[in-house]
Design a protein that fits this description.
mainly alpha; 295 residues
Length: 295
Amino acid sequence: MDVPALRIWEAAEKGELSMLATDVEQWAFDVSTVVDDVAQSSTLANEHGDWDAALRCIRRALRTDGGKKNGYLYRLAANCSFSLGDWPSALRYAQEGVKISRDELGSGYVRSMCQEADGHLYLGDPVGAWDLYTAAAEASPGHPLPRYYRGQGLLLLAKLLDVYRRDLAEDGKPSNRSKEVLNELVTRAMDDLTVAADLLDHWGLISESYQYRNFYLVSTLMGQGLGYLLNRAPGPTASRLQSARKSFPKDDLFYREYIFAKCWEQGLHREYGELLTGDGWEPLGERLRQEFGGR
């Protein structure tokens, strides 16, 4: 490790070399502890799907000086909280990640912004989420993640609105406005995801680094989740997909379907249905028109 010469000289002048040695020893301990906690929490979350245990490791690391400055830990904590359906904690971790990731190399800052946007979306704030997704896209126009996250967010709104429309139809209260809004959300989601796909293609993908262990198991687990959804049972769907994700914790397909089922189970489809078919649609609709054009 590299201790500045001036620091050593000042400590010698003041007779504080032993104190400096103690500081260096504590720093080394903090760094090694953070490295261990990062590795352990990442393994627990990304390989074993044990998000509770991963969060315990992360919280321990965040109590150290080194951990408090580690943006990856905050992003991993947000991801674990999302996976446990704890939207407020996920938003809090994501916001902290944004604060300390601004000068990071790579995709850390962009990913933290997208996580913060997801937190707003799952807590019923689509306009706040849109503004954060868009800010991330404007900050890194060549990065695929902001358009991917924003497109997935619009798809989530469309799926929740579709549940709400079906509930209205069953009660004999069909809504023409909801169909128009649904079509707009799906169209704009496809616009975003198309751009994300093109950007991902330019970035390049290494297929052999991310292969499923069993193609038939994936389709079976997804089929079980779909069966519960068709029976309009979001609770069992979320539970089944959560179990499936323990075998494939990095798979975003399972994650997105789990988020949809969990939001449905929590009643967010009614909240968004009323918002998107009422006056609450206009602020988001205006942003969509500004971004994509149209009426």
